Amino acid sequence: MSVVRFDNVGQTYEIHKTGHLVQALSDVTFDVAEKEFCAIVGPSGCGKSTLLHLLAGLKTPTSGEVFFRSHKVEAINTAVGYVTQDSRLLPWMTVVDNIRLPLDIRKVARKERDKLVEEWIALVGLEGFESVYPSQLSGGMQKRCSIARTLVYGPDVLLMDEPFAAVDAITRTVLQQILLDLWSNYQKTVLFVTHDLNEALTLADRIIVMTKRPGRIKAQIEVSIQRPRDVFHVAELPEFTKLHRELWDVFRSEIDGSLSQPERGQD
Amino acid sequence: MAVSAEGDTILMGKSTTGSASLKRRPKTRRSIRIAQIISVIVILGLWQLADNRLFPDYLISSPYNVVRRLFSLLSTVTMWHNIGATAEELALGYLLGVVTGVAFGVGLAYWRVAGATFEPLITIINGIPKIALAPLLLIWFGLGLASKVAIASMTVFFVMFYNSYLGVRSMPSELVEVVKLMGASRSVVLRKVVLPQISTPLVTGLRSAVPFAMIGVIVGEFIAADVGVGYFIRNSSENFDSASVFAGIVVLVLMIIVGTGIISMFERWIMPWRTHEEE
């Protein structure tokens, strides 16, 4: 059964002030299965983030429909967890208060709430930083905190919008491993937007490749690399190299096109 | 002059050693502090010398006379009565202005239609020099406490209104989005995101509103009153008693310092994360 379904989705937006219309997405149709890790890659400006916005109910599609568990998404979708490139922690709350916030909003009983918060602080390795403010944390630690805050209330579908793009390479690898472990332990469905082909191959079951704007689905590649995967060594596997070449061949024509055409507009 | 030259030689002497940059700051700070104190002493000294030499005493008085007058005034019940009245007007006017200003600012920014309707009107009203409305408020609210509170709260209202209105309008929508996705209701968004977010412009407003409130109160007391520090200053000036005028001004300055100090304490209490950012 599919958890998420995009049905002929098109999205057009108006550039502020000039009134110029830009088509971000066109005829996008795909499904995401329960517990699938699905990566979406594409050149910048291809509308991959827009897909997540639509699914979260932060935007409505200009044409077509988005379904979440066979219900049409028409309002803010509070059943999904959303992790973005910037950590979006509330600067006036400590680490523990940030992670506790979604539980307070959902009126989780105090005892269970405190247990969950403690558990997730340990799972992302933030012990000892409970009463620290986000501004005092490194980028990688802010990311850990934001992941814990999103997973603590147990959404079974995660939308991740280039979550690790802003952290350094080593931290990124560590965070990828944490994410994969959490994903396999907690049986989540993940939609993971990235522009990093290696990252997509390392993490995903399936990779959806988008064309440049207006974004369409260009190809879908099954990633058959065995699990559990070790993110530190997965790139050494022959399958990885083979898939990477395949993916890159699909992707290159889109990049070449955008090299001659300067990029504008939003993702 | 001598002090700054001395400060420079200390700096040059230390700059060759490795720890110079660490030691430089407190030294510089201390020599600046000394220079500040000396400049104040020099100005007060010149003032003292000018009294009865360059200008007659009834025009400028002298620091010595002002301090003496201040102490003799502070031992009278009447002066404390004046201070009490002004403090009461100041506190009430300030609180009323803050509460209404923030309520309207947040409210109009939050409900866009109302904001779009009233914003131009409030801008026009804000264009009026508030002091020009003071006589009108005196007619409406009488010669006592109420009119001073009204004038002070009106000046404070506009400061707080603009700070909170613009604070909410400049809200990073991403944070609101994130909290809404967690399932937050409007009131949770208001409490957890909007109010903390606007607390920075709000606290800036809170601090700058103290002298504004004081202006309102003093203007009210200048125009018509029978008690208060402003009344005392005006009365003293009519008697050409400049020592008392200066003493009254010193009292006002002290009151503003106390008021701003209270607000700063409040600021550290409600926004502990800010002190962390500055570290």
Jot down its keywords.
heterodimer; A: 267 residues; alpha/beta; Rossmann fold; 4-stranded antiparallel beta sheet; disordered C terminus; B: 279 residues; mainly alpha; MetI-like fold; 13 helices; 0% strand; disordered N terminus
Summarize it.
The complex is a heterodimer of chains A (267) and B (279). Chain A has 267 residues and is an alpha/beta fold. Helix content of chain A is 36%, strand content 24%.
Explain how this protein is built.
- The complex is a heterodimer of chains A (267) and B (279).
- In chain A, a hairpin with a 6-residue loop joins strand 9 (206-210) and strand 10 (217-222).
- Chain A contains seven helices and ten strands.
- Chain A starts with a strand and ends in a 7-residue tail after the last helix.
- By secondary structure, chain A is α/β, with parallel strands linked by helices.
- Chain A has two domains: 1-79 and 158-165 and 188-262, P-loop containing nucleotide triphosphate hydrolases (Rossmann fold, 3-Layer(aba) Sandwich); 85-155, no CATH class.
- In chain A, the strands form two sheets. Chain A has a six-stranded mixed β-sheet with strand order 6-7-8-3-9-10, sandwiched between helices.
- Chain B is built from 13 helices and no strands.
- Chain B has helices at residues 2-15, 20-50, 57-60, 63-74, 77-110, 112-127, 130-141, 145-169, 173-181, 186-223, 229-238, 242-270, 272-278.
- Chain B starts with a helix and ends with a helix.
- The model of chain B is unreliable at 1-23 (pLDDT under 50).
- Classes of the chains: A alpha/beta (267), B mainly alpha (279).
Average pLDDT value of chain A?
88
Distance separating the two termini of chain A: 29 Å
Report the principal-axis shape of chain A. globular
CATH fold category name of the largest domain in chain B: MetI-like fold
| Count of alpha and pi helical runs of chain A | 7
* Beta content of chain A: 15-25%
Residue-averaged pLDDT of chain B: 84
Portion of residues in beta strands of chain B equals under 5%
Oligomer: heterodimer
Main pleated sheet of chain A: 6 strands, mixed
Spatial strand arrangement across the major sheet of chain A: 6-7-8-3-9-10
**What kind of sheet is the major sheet of chain B?**
none
Order of helices and strands of chain A: EEEHEEEHHHEHEHEEH
| Classification by helices and strands of chain B | mainly alpha
Number of helices of chain B: 13
Q: So what's the CATH class of the largest domain in chain A? A: Alpha Beta
At the first level of CATH, what is the class of the largest domain in chain B?
Answer: Mainly Alpha
